[in-house]
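Name: Homing endonuclease LAGLIDADG domain-containing protein
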Amino acid sequence: RIKNKDPSYIQKFWVGLMDGDGSIQVNHWRKKALQYRLVIKLRHCSENVEMLNLISKDIGGKVRIIKKNEFVIWVVDSRKSILKILKIFDTYPPLTSRLRAQLKFMLECFKRDDVEWYLNSRNSKYLTPTGRDISVDIDYSYFNEWLSGFIEAEGCFSIRQNNFHSFSIGQNDDKYLIDAIRNHFNIQSQTRNPYKTFWLIETYRVSTLHNIIKHCTEYPLIGQKLVSFNKFKDLIN
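Structure predicted for Homing endonuclease LAGLIDADG domain-containing protein:
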């Protein structure tokens, strides 16, 4: 499915998937030691298992089925492996303020290795406005691959009985990111704010949907979203 892609495709895609569905976690063990984890949690289905196995093969980490077969997770909990994998973010930084703040906090915990500091700082790790980026300079050299990973997590291909098919994608807090996706696909409709800090774009325009289909064909989805994309593509084309 990802034939002829450069070896870094999975890494760039993974950053987008982490931005959408992943988390960078620091916890403590009985207030004595710090524990570190990278996690992506998805609905359990063969396509998601296959995708996470691909990530595990290329990047590292283990894939497990949890909660009575309901979810599949990709997890890295060895400090050495985490440090190695975090280097990917040096080359392809995350684009959501949430993941950037989690990454910054984990790196600070690694540096200090101080449970006391962690316990005092964990509640403010990314809840304060100053701790989160209001906007990010987007590096477009990996944006296409990142975007496919992000669509895998947050995109929605809606098929409707009345033939008003649409594509939508949303995100908490980061309007700058939804605006960047809107510009990238040349979406005419405005970015909406349906509730609280959630930002969303949705497009029904056939010419725009063709742009999105072209993108997802060139930069393939590799999990469960590929199934809904293929059905969608057949209807639009």
